[in-house]
């Protein structure tokens, strides 16, 4: 049902913005009231003011625009210090100080939107979706489900939440005054942000931009109190380059007479990533070459015709002696140089077949 401008109970009237280029830079707009006959409004202009005033000689169709006699000029109802000018083709609410004397003291305020994804610009007809005249206008899917949850997680944070106060930009920037009940009490913050999302497309769910720029000011009404001191221990791997290798070798490991020939020796390791304490594994020796990755032997014991127990005891004693820094536990072995067994020169070392 169309409500005409003579309805004495009506206080807001719909209008379509046709021009926002206010030469006075006061936030005024030229708009077409939907409930009025525009031709009769223009034909009712006081032409005497045109013929006798500063507008004399100008094109009659253009000379009245943006002047005090222009019936389509509306002042912003918001104060001058709050600048929010709608765009052409958008819906505005028109307000008259006195409906009996229209075309004088007439104001506007931004009209409704049918979806936050249309905030860059929404035409008049689409804006009527949630008004009485919008029953036949197709609804744009919302960002949330009826139970208040987000349809997709990535849309959370793009638009202000209920309870927040905000000043929104047309596209991707805004100022949000947050007031939410957190786990530890009331948290108040002010967010100034730009690039909150990369696009606003009708029918597409917005995606929060994690790389947005923002400034956050927060007030925390809590006091930090030091609790009971607790000690925790953990192992941290200290990776070092292996300095020495003990290599043992049984030449006839599969003989059936329990008589083994072999050797055990101490070798120098040439530093590289292959031979640090993290990378050295059970089969690493197969990928190492003497002269390239290690050299020696510095100390070596060879044995022949030893039983399994004798062979293993001799190898273990050699390892034990290197660990202690001397080979006095093997009396018959003449040490070539005591410096070869110095802990400073030996550790860390590995034992490998």
**CATH architecture grouping of the largest domain:** Beta Barrel
* Proportion of residues in β-strands: 25-35%
Largest sheet: 5 strands, mixed, barrel
Reading side by side through the largest sheet, how are the strands ordered?
1-2-3-5-4
Q: What gap, in angstroms, lies between the N and C termini?
A: 97 Å
Q: What is the mean predicted local confidence, pLDDT?
A: 86
Radius of gyration: 44 Å
Number of discrete domains = 3
Spell the H/E element sequence: EEHHEEEHEEEEEEEHHE
As a percent range, the share of helical residues equals: 10-25%
Low-confidence stretches: 50-60, 182-186
Number of helices: 5
Shape: rod-shaped
For this structure, the CATH topology of the largest domain is OB fold (Dihydrolipoamide Acetyltransferase, E2P)
Question: What structural class should be given to the helix and strand makeup?
Answer: mainly beta
Count the strands?
Answer: 13
CATH class of the largest domain: Mainly Beta
């Amino acid at each position: 049902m169309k409500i005409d401008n003579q309805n004495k109970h009506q206080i807001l009237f719909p209008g379509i913005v046709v021009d926002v280029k206010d030469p006075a830079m006061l936030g005024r707009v030229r708009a077409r009231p939907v409930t009025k006959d525009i031709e009769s409004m223009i034909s009712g202009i006081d032409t005497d003011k045109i013929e006798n005033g500063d507008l004399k000689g100008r094109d009659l169709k253009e000379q009245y625009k943006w002047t005090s006699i222009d019936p389509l000029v509306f002042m912003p109802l918001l104060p001058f210090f709050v600048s929010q000018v709608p765009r052409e083709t958008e819906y505005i609410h028109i307000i008259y100080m006195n409906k009996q004397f229209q075309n004088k003291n007439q104001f506007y305020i931004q009209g409704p939107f049918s979806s936050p994804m249309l905030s860059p610009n929404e035409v008049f007809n689409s804006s009527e979706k949630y008004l009485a005249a919008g029953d036949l206008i197709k609804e744009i899917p919302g960002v949330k489900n009826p139970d208040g949850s987000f349809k997709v997680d990535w849309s959370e944070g793009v638009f202000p939440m209920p309870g927040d106060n905000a000043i929104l930009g047309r596209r991707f920037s805004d100022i949000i005054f947050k007031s939410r009940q957190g786990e530890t009490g009331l948290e108040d913050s002010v967010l100034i942000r730009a690039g909150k999302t990369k696009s606003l497309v009708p029918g597409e769910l917005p995606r929060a931009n994690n790389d947005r720029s923002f400034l956050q000011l927060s007030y925390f009404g809590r006091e930090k109190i030091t609790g009971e001191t607790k000690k925790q221990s953990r192992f941290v791997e200290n990776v070092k380059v292996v300095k020495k290798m003990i290599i043992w070798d049984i030449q006839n490991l599969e003989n059936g007479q329990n008589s083994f020939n072999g050797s055990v020796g101490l070798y120098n390791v040439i530093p590289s990533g292959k031979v640090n304490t993290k990378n050295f594994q059970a089969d690493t020796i197969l990928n190492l070459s003497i002269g390239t990755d290690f050299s020696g032997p510095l100390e070596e014991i060879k044995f022949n015709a030893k039983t399994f127990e004798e062979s293993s005891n001799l190898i273990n004693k050699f390892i034990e002696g290197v660990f202690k820094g001397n080979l006095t536990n093997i009396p018959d072995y003449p040490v070539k140089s005591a410096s070869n067994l110095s802990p400073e020169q030996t550790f860390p070392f590995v034992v490998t077949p």
